[in-house]
# Entry
Amino acid sequence: MSDTRLSLAGTVAGLAAALGLWAAPAPAAAQAESAWQANEDDYLFLQPVIGKYKLTLDVRGYRTDRGVCLDLADVIQSLDLPIRIDKKSRRATGWLFAEDQTFTLDRDSDTVQNMNVEGGRAPIAGDIHDTPEGWCVDTGALSRWFGITFKPDLYNAIIRLESERDLPFMQAIERRSRAARLDRRPKQTFDLSRFPTAEMEYRPWRTPSLDVVAQGEVTSGEAGRRPSAGRVELYAAGEALGASYSARFATDNQLAPQTVRLRAYRNDPDGGLLGPLEATQAAVGDVETIAGRLTGQTQVGRGAFVSNRPMGQTNRFSATTLRGTLPAGWDAELYRNGQLIAFQDDRGDGRYEFVEIELFYGRNDLEVVLYGPQGQIRRERTSVPVGFSQIEPGQTYYWAGVLQTQRDLVQINLDNVFLPQKWRWGVGVERGIDQRTSVALGMQSLVFEGARRTYAEGAIVRSFGAMAVELTAAHEFGAGAVAEANALGRVGNINLGVNGLVSFGDFTSEFVTNQIDWRAGFTFDTSLALGKGSLPIQGDIQHSRLRDGSQINEALLTTSVTAGRVAISAQISHQERTAGEILPGRTDTRLRLLANTRMGRWRLRGNAVWAFQGPRTGFERANIRVDGNIDERSDVQGQVEYVGQADEFRFTGAYTRRFDQLLLRGDAFVTTRGGVGAGVQVAFSLGPDPVRGGIRVSQAKLARNGQADVTVFRDDDGNGRRDPGEAVLKDVLVEAGQRSTDAYTGENGRVIVDNLRPFRPVLVGVDESTLDDPFLAPAVKGIVLTPRPGVMARIDIPISPSGEVEGMLLGTNGIEQPGVALELVDARGDVVAGTVSEFDGFFLFQRVPYGQYRLRVAEEAAATLGVAAALPGTRGAQGFTIRQGEDVIRLGPVKLRAADQAPPAKIAARGAGTGKPE
# Structure
């Protein structure tokens, strides 16, 4: 046990070190003439330790009449120093911890030279002893030469190193330690499957939440605008008849009803919808279809849609389209892999739409950032991989949809209708053949260019190493056909794309016009190294030949620079069309700039367009907007707009105030053409309040985001449920995912957490530092919730009293086993705690919540030692229970067993919480 851990050699070493304290230092001359000789009784084997880190390589040494000496070669190797020892010339040369710290040891001249010794040169005197291992240097001399302190600790068989500065080998240890933490972090942070899930069944009715935006303005001197205007937008989300629904009602600028949109839907990532169809999504009302490859674009309108495809998966090989809800007065920016590539302002239809976003080989991380007029910022992220296995072998995905294009469920006003409101339908199926190959078939019928057109298309996708190829063909019944080949790949740090298309007959679609004869193109994406930074560049070059004999050459070059908080994107496009049989030649060249930055409390965003060639040249338009925070609740905003065609500047200023229940904004503008105006906007949300009862009013977007009603209680019996008599806990901070909140539980132990992203699993837990009782611990680290927009989820978080588990780990030979990683596993099979056995085999788990557990060796440690992972619990059983009255589990000696041996016999354990043998 612990009283017999010291070996005889360690005891002798400790006594020798203690006696050394009484010995007076010898004069220098006596030291130089020391008659000490190396012998086995004085031999040492020490482990270097600096701070909390232990160096890998041990150092040999001896106890001498002056103290302790260490083998110089071992020290050099352990500290990873570039010093060479040449025993033939009796010299050691190199440098210490920086190239300007040269080191020379010359035993013939009996001197050492380096920057750490006074005067740059010092005599060796009796600092070096010749031993069978090599040159053994006194620790005092090593301290003077190397500029760090060497302190022998013979009792623990270590040599402590102390330094006031970070040395290269220390920095290397820190880097390896950070890398190890990074390697472990994904397993601990992002594996949500390890945590319990909050079930949220659909109900016949859940009270909806309602977002309200109302605005009004008065103007003067504005041609084409009425002197007064007002607009209201309502957006509701809830559940009815076992389905989610969203509804949008909007008026025009004169408060006349304009549109009513209603969508009922169900989403299930596990494919549990519609019985044998195993659908992941089903919707009726205002829906969106999936684009074909060469036939119909993705469209929105009233209709129905069903699919078993993974949520968010694109159907196009080298491009995708993003759509979403854009509240009144908001604008949107699009980022691809962190680069700003597109911008859209509010266009009055309540949607943002980024069509045909170009994709590159590998991972394409797309982020839409939405900016609200009151300073709100929302982010919507999606990832579109290209070239990876998007469908497993033997897996089949399908989709089917029918809708009336651009037609809301209840259409009142046709002012914002841009396409013929005709019915269209489509179906598609895709199957994985093997890990690298998939095939797809589809049909679509739609009205385009005044005629009903029906198509059939097919595609095969195959990956070859770092390249993916798609071959696609489509046929328009009664007209013609088209074929296209696409290849995306990566060579070094360059993403490349090649495409070619040829048309036969009179084929025409929303992707391919009937004028085209053939088309070929090339795309690339790379980063140019510029000093310590890089400049990303994307290029697209296309050449087309039309049926009238004309040709079109197109080029697009995009670059984006992100430096600190500044992001600037520049895009130059050029199109040149030669003269044909009917149309004359034309050349268009445009430059678009997008930029945003943050300076302290101020955010600056802008965009501009110049036309260098075309029917109208010059500065087309520009917009610069600055937002700033006055305090936690107040923002100001300034904006300058320029429209080149009208040669008009518009200057706008606004002030926003955030209250607990609503957002209030006032703005005013003036133009260089004499226009003036002022407006006011109010935004708030209504939703059920299960904590206080009734209806709550909030500035948060309750209908567009998820909510959770969280109760934190003391789980005295450790069963994970709140039983009668178990108290609630107040003033506990509830957290959701990686973001911080201000959601503290009230007197009733409940709190509402808002702004949860819909349909994205999030881990809801508590901040343990806000628990008043240090002996309380969460029974689970968190509960996974998949929020749904507009409805309230219900979560109970148990906080349990905690106990301890201790024992002594023995190796297969019965000797104390230090340095072994151990884990506690709960009844669900989840690892709830980990520790490492101490130098004497002792291990301890603290703050373990009440419950049933079993002890095991960590997988990597078990594989390294060649032992079985399972360890016995109390009385030789597989596990043990921590509960009231038995909150201290003393396992006693726990012996490892070889991986191929049967479980050992019962191991005696001490009574939990009593300390007495059973």
